[in-house]
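Hi F.,

I've been meaning to write this up properly since the lab meeting, where we talked about keeping a consistent format for the predictions we share between groups. The idea is simple: the sequence comes first, exactly as it goes in, then the structure tokens exactly as they come out, then a line or two of notes. No screenshots and no reformatting. I'm using this chain as the first example so we have something concrete to point to.
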Amino acid sequence: MIRLIDWLPENTAACIFTSVNRQYLTGFESSLGYLLVSKNDACLFVDGRYILAAKQAVKDCRVELFVSGLDNVKSFVKDNGIKTVFCEDSISVAQFNRFVGMFEGAEVTVDGGLQEKLTNLRKVKTDYEVECIIKAQRIAEKAFDDVLNYIKVGVAERDIAAELEYRMKKYGSEIPSFETIAVAGLKSAMPHGVPDGNIIKNGDFITMDFGAVYNGYHSDMTRTVAVGFATDKMQLVYNTVLNAQLVAEKAVRAGVNCCDVDFAAREVIKNNGFGEYFTHSNGHGVGLEIHEKPNVAPSSVDILRSGMVISNEPGIYIEGEFGVRIEDMLLVTDEGSKNLTNCEKSLIIL
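Output, unedited:
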């Protein structure tokens, strides 16, 4: 919160209305609310569903209940001498017009740089945020270890996905980070394939992409395993992806361009003859949302900073045959990176 307050000009307030940014600044999650921040004051306005919980959880600002006519919201503007209200840019025309009425006497603008400021703040994680991400990751890893004993010939993709989500929930995940991917055989060549009744067969690759959520923070990992056996080509592709991932990991450090990290992985895959089969970017930021800045992509202009958490997930997808993806999360440091994923990466054949 203090970094936002320091950035705000005098007689200006920030209106934070998206749930993820409210949670980032206050530590409290709610589906509805407004966080108003000025140089001298900060207040979270919530409705009756959240007022008691918010008062118990929020430490860095006042908490007030919406009152009829939003008179206390209007009073915030008047009492703090607010002349301009900065809003996030994910705002509809109807919502903007509503804010004009709420903040009467002040100019409402989405051009004040608030969105860019919030994005830049969230790129670099605090120690607390990193701790939550690691706890989410450890939950996902425990679920993965359990599911390895569940996978066998005759089991359906959707059952593997459901088992992963059940185990994560059992071990403390609030919700899955996203819709769990567990695709096998020909479908493993679909980077975002949807699990269905497809039955696991001997000789299949199974790609599992999944994550847990702890205190609102996401984890993200992918592992590809083989059932019964892996052909020479399957092993070649797997080891190519693994080598690409390791090379990309070595390229990560504060000050490096994200596009160069992507290039490092892509070159390994290209030099092994599979360049056309790596069809997505090598990674992205992870935090309160599963996809955050920075983008680790060929066209990215983002530069890595110490404290960022990024995914490292090269893949090869050969239509009509199979696919492989291996994904870890990396904490960027001045010296390099710390791998937050503590899970086997050599090819597992079940």
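Notes:
The mean pLDDT is 96.
The domain at 2-122 is CATH 3.40.350.10 (Creatine Amidinohydrolase; Chain A, domain 1).

If this format works for you, I'll send the rest the same way.

G.
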